[in-house]
Design a protein that fits this description.
The complex is a heterodimer of chains A (344) and B (332). By secondary structure, chain A is mainly α. Helices cover 77% and strands 0% of the residues of chain A. Chain A has helices at residues 2-27, 35-44, 50-85, 97-115, 126-150, 154-178, 181-191, 200-219, 221-226, 231-236, 241-263, 269-281, 286-308, 319-337, 340-343. The longest helix of chain A has 36 residues, at 50-85. The model of chain A is unreliable at 119-123 (pLDDT under 50). Chain B is of the alpha/beta class. Chain B is 30% helix and 27% strand. Chain B has 10 helices and 16 strands. Classes of the chains: A mainly alpha (344), B alpha/beta (332). At the A-B interface, α9, α10 and α15 of A face α2, β6 and α3 of B.
Chain lengths: 344, 332
């Protein structure tokens, strides 16, 4: 009883932390806006300067929302993968779905010069990027679900996913080799990830996609707990592994694919956050771990985004580098601090 | 015996794997019956098809021919969830979820009975607590799996299978990797569960001695022959245990109640306290001395007093090793 109480307390304080980080996040940027102005503005909807209102409402708040949604999407798909494959190093990217998204974007941005034709004119719009990434992610997702349907062994699925990832990366390299400098730069910038390119209409689509992607998790929540004992035990307890595997591929595919499509690839959140959730909440129960990972994922990405736009600097660091720079030492620390393999 | 309820029954199963049109037959002529309240041990050499048989019983790999009947209905007519309510397993694979506490692990056994969130009802909790107390693991309730010894882990895995509350429990080598005391404890625990909770329990094991001590039924599996079933005692008397030892080197000794190397009859005459005879035979055998000429005579007066009559000399000795030493010295 007291255990579930402490979990509830932790989750509540996590939500509070998100609120604080959200405020911190929108208060930081290349233009200095005083904290009390932000409070007042959010409370009453009126800002003393209209430029501040524009910055906060059309730029910083959507970006913070994006950080929260992307953090949630990546961490809960990472948790699914780690539990399903019984592998602490599994993450949302191992099924090759975000490489698929990357390939989609690479084809749109760079294939023009590689094949001598222009797909989208000279400018590359946000929607065009999102759509091509989605098409790429869905193609790989379809291939992977087909594989998941066919193969009996989950390890095979993992390896096939890694191979899809390698193959798509190779195609991207070929495209990059033949493209000109400007296109290469466009693609490289996309591949560094960005939380700040979305407006409210895109955010709505992103949110809806994530909700759809999370539905299989809700349906199979109990099965994930049974999977803690391995596939054979789970089967002996009435879990339909075949259906679960398929649902897992679809769910991570949608969650990670959508996040990559909307924000570009963001490393480490998917792998590191589930481990942090296990450590902080000290449980293996997925009824707690899924919300816990979602909260920690949102908080970590908000924090990373705040760091990426250090105050009084006009420059922002690419979010993908920040998550890696913060994530890698964090994971190393976690591993060294406790018996990592036993923890899992 | 006949009023025991039959849980599982099969006639002339043909086991194996099918890949396309190709069939790989692993075992044939498999017929058996599992009854509630009985502990059955499945014995057989590695690679004879014990795992394939378990998979057939557990519905993972249906037999090529024949049907396994669970409570009179074909196994294939059960869906996975209702099968999980009838049959629970303890496997050889190790559980890597170290964050799980014993209470949570045993609670997972209720998975086929709970709703979609897996929340335990008061009735479920009662069953879980009962499973934990039957296996005498209450003191481990809040420990994490990483803190358990192999023996403790095996007992809580049995508790989990018990909490699943099926009519049949299948255990694949539950005593492997365990020390002597834990082997006995685990097997006696299973025996107790079979009798008190009226479960049918099937155990794959290689521990012949402990299996003979605890099992109600033996299934002996051997290459290319039908499954031999019966009580261990009957199988011993009918020399069927030797089916496990197809080589010319080993045999099961009814007298010693254990496996021994095949040798010609002992020519040394051993007299005296007959209960202690087998230890003298054992020591002679290890020293390759059992075929000394029949003029040699050993009289066991007590545990610490042996008389050796050898080559016309009579020795009074205090231990078996002294007897052996004396024989070695003079015999060579």
């Amino acid at each position: 009883m007291d255990k579930s109480l402490s979990s509830t307390l932790l989750i509540l304080s996590g939500l509070l932390l998100i609120a604080v980080l959200f405020l911190l996040n929108i208060s930081i940027g290349s233009v200095f806006i005083p904290m009390d102005e932000i409070f007042k503005g959010i409370w009453s909807g009126e800002f003393s300067r209209s430029s501040w209102e524009t910055i906060i409402k059309t730029y910083r708040i959507p970006k913070a929302y994006t950080a929260i949604l992307a953090g949630i999407g990546l961490s809960i798909s990472g948790l699914q993968m780690q539990t399903f494959f019984r592998n602490p190093l599994a993450g949302p990217f191992v099924l090759g779905i975000s490489s698929g998204a990357g390939l989609g974007v690479a084809i749109m941005v760079m294939a023009g010069s590689a094949f001598g034709l222009t797909l989208f004119g000279s400018g590359v719009g946000v929607w065009a990027t999102i759509i091509s990434a989605t098409v790429g992610a869905i193609s790989v997702l379809l291939l992977m679900s087909l594989t998941a349907w066919k193969v009996k062994d989950s390890m095979t699925l993992l390896i096939v996913g890694l191979m899809f990832g390698s193959a798509t990366s190779a195609i991207i390299s070929v495209l990059a080799y033949f493209s000109d400098a400007e296109q290469l730069k466009t693609f490289t910038i996309w591949s560094m990830g960005s939380l700040g390119s979305m407006d409210y209409s895109q955010l709505k689509v992103f949110l809806l996609t994530l909700i759809v992607g999370a539905i299989p998790i809700l349906i199979f929540l109990k099965s994930y707990n049974a999977m803690l004992l391995g596939e054979t035990y789970a089967e002996s307890m009435g879990v339909n592994i075949h259906r679960l595997r398929w649902a897992m591929v679809i769910s991570t595919g949608i969650l990670a694919g959508a996040t990559t499509a909307f924000c570009g690839p963001i490393a480490f959140i998917g792998i590191a956050v589930p481990h942090m959730a296990r450590l902080v909440f000290k449980t293996s129960d997925h009824r707690i771990l899924f919300p816990a990972s979602a909260i920690i994922g949102a908080a970590v990405l908000l924090l990373c985004d705040a760091i990426s736009q250090m105050p009084s600097s006009a420059q922002t660091l690419p979010i993908n580098s920040v998550t890696s720079l913060i994530g890698a030492p964090m994971v190393i620390w976690l591993i060294l601090r406790r018996n990592f393999s036993k923890e899992f | 015996m006949s009023d025991l309820k039959t849980i599982l029954k099969a006639n002339n199963l043909k086991l194996g794997y099918r890949k396309g049109p190709k069939e790989t037959v692993v075992a044939e002529n498999i017929s058996f019956e599992l009854k509630a309240g009985e502990l059955t041990c499945l014995l057989g050499p590695n690679g004879v098809g014990k795992s394939t048989l378990l998979k057939a019983i557990h519905g993972q790999n249906p037999p090529l021919e024949g049907d396994v009947l669970l409570e009179g209905k074909a196994l294939s007519s059960f869906d996975q969830r209702s099968l999980a309510r009838k049959i629970s397993v303890v496997l050889t694979e190790k559980i890597s979820s170290a964050n799980l506490t014993v209470g949570q692990l045993v609670g997972l056994g209720r998975t086929p009975h709970t709703g979609w969130l897996g929340r335990l009802s008061p009735a479920d909790k009662m069953i879980v607590e009962n499973a934990i107390s039957v296996t005498n693991t209450q003191y481990l309730h809040d420990r994490r799996l990483s803190e358990l010894s192999d023996g403790q882990l095996q007992k809580v895995m049995i508790a989990r299978a018990l909490a699943q509350d099926g009519e049949l429990m299948i255990l694949d080598e539950p005593t492997a990797h365990l020390d002597l005391v834990n082997r006995y404890e685990v097997m006696h625990l299973l025996r107790e569960i079979a009798q008190r909770q009226n479960k049918a329990i099937l155990v794959v094991t290689h521990d012949l001695d402990i299996a003979i001590d605890t099992a109600d039924q033996f299934w002996i599996m051997q290459c290319g022959a039908p499954l031999s079933t019966g009580s261990p005692e009957d199988l011993i008397l009918k020399n069927k245990i030797n089916l496990l030892l197809p080589s010319a080197i080993l045999q099961f000794s009814k007298e010693l109640g254990k496996v021994e190397p095949i040798v010609d009859r002992i020519t040394v005459v051993i007299d005296g306290v007959m209960e202690l005879r087998k230890w003298v035979i054992l020591a002679l055998r290890k020293a390759n001395l059992e075929r000394l000429d029949s003029s040699t005579k050993i009289i066991i007066n007590s545990e610490e007093d042996f008389t050796l009559d050898h080559q016309g000399h009579i020795y009074q000795l205090n231990s078996i090793s002294e007897v052996i030493q004396k024989l070695k010295k003079s015999g060579l």
